[in-house]
């Protein structure tokens, strides 16, 4: 009988994409294993791009747990988790709630990180692994590697193509650069005029390239503010469509956001702008990535909103950065 594995990694966009190299390594070592995955509903389409095919998506409706009547949701989720006798359940999230879900399963081995993000998660594990790696991708790789005794290097895998999603994209210029001017944290969101300056600088060096803005429907106004010369597809693509849009881009430039991680996973040249977060631990992973980080005393503060409203970490030179990006792309 093949090995049955349950992965618990409900969120977020970038965190799930960071798991792909570890999943690819698992697939290469255990091609006959079966994989189920606990995921939040908004991120479930990401699993269609998993390098280890997911047999069953177990939907975790986290928002329903915040309501007063959460017991039915817990019971329904418990029923789903206990439909299978898993050989191994792995909590890559490291929070109390993800540890709790691991504990609900019938898995023989219930594994997670020693020194989890929330130490209370560890009470649900019977196997704990301590990682010495810095970047999240490498931490996930270490956990999977030690747990399953995997052999081989951790690499960015080739992700499957969604031909149906690609066919639904509008006709676009042959060469285009995707810009991602939105993100969930207000403090991560460099202003539209900054993106406009970067785009002008790139276009002066590479007039053959068009610019396409992508993101959620809530980010459509932000994308429109970048400039009328930008093709605004924010809110106009499905999540699979976004992947295919990124896959065919000359490059992707943007704030610290989930789609920027997807672009790196698709092996596109990625240029990211960082202020309240530092790129060292959770940035897009791969050899084609370059990051611009403000040199001010408050950079890396991890605040969702700037405490004094100054946003000094957004004071990067758009024109200079655009020229650097253009020079790098000409080398490709």
Strand elements, count: 12
Strand order of the largest sheet: 3-2-1-4-5-6
Radius of gyration of CA atoms, rounded to a whole number: 21 Å
Estimated helix fraction: 25-40%
Mean pLDDT: 92
Beginning-to-end CA distance, first to last residue: 47 Å
Number of helices: 13
**Can you write the helix and strand succession as a string?**
EHHEEHHEHEEHHEHEHEHEHEHEH
The low-confidence parts are none
| Overall 3D form | globular
Q: How does the major sheet shape up? A: 6 strands, parallel
Q: How much beta, percentage-wise? A: 15-25%
SS-derived structural category: alpha/beta
Features:
single chain; 332 residues; alpha/beta; six-stranded parallel beta sheet; 13 helices; 34% helix; 16% strand
